[in-house]
Design goal:
Blueprint (H helix, E strand, L loop, with lengths): L11 E2 L20 E6 L5 E4 H6 L3 E8 L4 E12 H8 L7 E6 L4 E5 H4 L5 E6 L2 E2 L9 E3 L12 E7 L26
Parallel strand pairs: 1-5, 2-11
Antiparallel strand pairs: 2-3, 4-5, 5-8, 6-7, 6-11, 8-9, 8-10
Bound molecules: the ligand Nc1nc2c(c(=O)[nH]1)N[C@H]1C(S)=C(S)[C@@H](COP(=O)(O)O)O[C@H]1N2 and molybdenum atom.
The ligand Nc1nc2c(c(=O)[nH]1)N[C@H]1C(S)=C(S)[C@@H](COP(=O)(O)O)O[C@H]1N2 binds next to loops.
């Protein structure tokens, strides 16, 4: 067995950070920010900006891979780790999937085990500055091992589910899982 190449198949490296979304870019001031979690968890949360900032903060450097074939190496993120977030909300044993819900109406789904990993972060900063409005600030989860459409911009709500619930692009022909190294791009 060979190791996975750093650049997944069919991807091209870019230094730029393109912007892709449904066309609306919600403008959420930190004082209006709320992050809620519900579903199959022991501790549903409703965090304002101060609550989010009061959680332990981590820095992570990750690569990102967009299904439109660009990849960008070495993005520095700061925020709350998925591991910490899960230690607070405490998923019940039945919880197997989660869905991100965003302010622009976007949703995307993933297995809990993909979120429950050391390289996953709820990011408020990118390369030393707040995640910009265009890139999904104030807070955006980053799941580096899946195509970037799984990394919802402008996240406001996370639901934990027993059964999978395909999101916006997943019901419109994108692959349900989205592993870049398996080129799980479409259907
Ligand atoms: N809320 C929200 N998140 C989203 C999207 C969106 O339209 N709305 N688009 C997804 C898609 S298809 C991609 S490729 C990435 C693009 O992220 P970027 O604009 O920061 O490059 O965001 C993902 N997250
Ligand atoms: Mo995309």
């Amino acid at each position: 067995m060979t190791d996975k190449p750093r650049l997944p198949p069919g991807q091209n490296l870019t230094q730029k950070f393109p912007i892709l979304d449904l066309g609306q870019q919600p403008d959420i001031a930190p004082e209006d920010f709320r992050l809620t979690a519900s579903g199959l968890i022991e501790n549903p949360i409703d965090w304002g900006w101060d609550d989010f900032q009061a959680q332990p903060q981590v820095h992570l450097t990750t690569d990102i891979h967009c299904v439109t074939t660009w990849s960008r190496f070495d993005n520095d993120w700061a925020g709350v780790s998925a591991k910490h977030f899960l230690s607070v909300v405490r998923p019940k044993p039945e919880a197997k999937f989660l869905v991100f819900h965003s302010h622009d109406g976007y949703t995307t789904n993933l297995p809990l085990e993909a979120f429950d990993d050391d390289d996953v972060i709820l990011a408020h900063s990118w390369n030393g500055a707040p995640v910009s409005r265009e890139h999904g600030g104030p807070v955006r989860p980053i799941i580096p091992k899946l195509y970037l459409w799984k990394s919802a911009k402008w996240v406001k709500h996370i639901t934990f589910l027993e059964k999978d619930e395909p999101g916006y692009w997943e019901v419109r022909g994108y692959h349900n899982n989205g592993d870049p190294w398996k080129e799980e791009r479409f259907g």
